[in-house]
Amino acid sequence: MKITRVTVTPIAFKDAPLLNASGIHEPYALRSIIEVETDNGHFGLGESYGDAAALAVLDKVKTQLIGLDPFNLNRLRAIVKSTVAGMAPAGNSGAELAPGSHASKAVSNAYSAFEVALLDAQARYLNVPLVDLLGGAVRTEIPFSAYLFFKYAEHIDSPYEPDSWGEALSEEQIVAQARRMIDENGFKSIKLKAGALDPEHEVACIKALKKAFPDAPLRIDPNGNWSLETAVRMAELLGDDLQYYEDPTPGLEGMAELHRRTGLPLATNMVVTDFDEFRRSVAQNSVQIVLADHHYWGGLRDTQMLALMCDTFGLGVSMHSNSHLGISLMAMSHVAAAVPNLSYACDTHYPWQEADEEVIKGGKLSIRNGCVGITRAPGLGVELDRDQLAKLHDLYLSCGIRSRDDVRQMRKYKPDWKTVKPRF
Ligand SMILES: O=C([O-])C(=O)C[C@H](O)[C@@H](O)C(=O)[O-]
Ligand SMILES: [Mg+2]
């Protein structure tokens, strides 16, 4: 089997005005859709970042894949490495919460984008679900958590009608957001994205969630925007309300000290984002749970290796997400299905995406009882809807955004918004 065609299509889709430690989401999120076709009529799909820096690498790699056997992933990795080595590193200002946009992740994120598409092609050729190439499913229902955000009711200078979620700044509004997300998807656990408003208020929202959903495991994620002292103080207020405390304070040293002082289980997708950071984290017991993300951890197989390392060193594993569509959701689900020690429900932004903005046939995938199901359909189990792909590509062309920048967007609301961290 040989690759005869590779297409990388940048797309944009509506995104809600979600608040985070950096600033606020822009009206559109960017992704890339990867298609690989083979000489025997098979194809494979992938989804990755759509920022200019990521697209530049994907575009340079794709032409070199013509003639490659999709089973030859070692050759893919060599091509990606040599391509990135020949390119100037890109800056990542404003996109600090999208780890895949960091220049240091150029190899792992481009490799991952194509690895998923090649594994999908392999699996379709063999007529097996992709998870079978990862050792088989240890579970077929993959648990995800409700991912709550503080948000404004609408975007500034809004290019479209306000979303249906409304404002979420108060305790009551956050509880209402959780209730709707749980009613619609059956989620069993809840994550609150924090680091945006006053820490005492964010903790009060956790308390309100605890009261409203006493059985749901809770997490709070201030994205490193709390000083060590603030994180210790909030830990005292939180008591034992949390399942885990996600990236409250910056740095491996800060997290290690916080764990020493509070004993709370700390999770991260910020201080352990590659194997070198993993090694340094283990040496000082900085975190107890690693949130994997195949998009920047170097694909599905490297994510399995990360999970094995977590098992070796007694750490828990779960999954991080950025704004994404269904191909990514299925890739996350297939690898999660093949990770025996997945110890927590995974994160996903998927419920925030609009129903008519999916690129797969049949529209948005369902999350039932808080889970995404894996079937015996070949590959990732999804097909591309070409009309939708064309529509979202047109949106990419017209939206004017070429790289995620939550800081730039927040300065439209607050012109003197600073990037100082930790803010609280
Ligand atoms: O767990 C996390 O840190 C994230 O999901 C990072 C994301 O960028 C999130 O903060 C967002 O979408 O604003
Ligand atoms: Mg996080």
UniProtKB/TrEMBL annotation:
Keyword line: Lyase, Magnesium, Metal-binding
Listed InterPro entries: DgoD-like (IPR034593), Enolase-like_C_sf (IPR036849), Enolase-like_N (IPR029017), Enolase_C-like (IPR029065), GlucD-like (IPR034598), Mandelate_racemase_C (IPR013342), Mandelate_racemase_N_dom (IPR013341)
Pathways per UniProt: Carbohydrate acid metabolism; D-glucarate degradation; 2,5-dioxopentanoate from D-glucarate: step 1/2
Lyase found in the keyword field: yes
EC number: 4.2.1.40
Similarity field: Belongs to the mandelate racemase/muconate lactonizing enzyme family. GlucD subfamily.
The name this protein goes by in its record: glucarate dehydratase
Species for this entry: Herbaspirillum hiltneri N3
Highest classification ranks of the organism: Bacteria, Pseudomonadati, Pseudomonadota, Betaproteobacteria, Burkholderiales
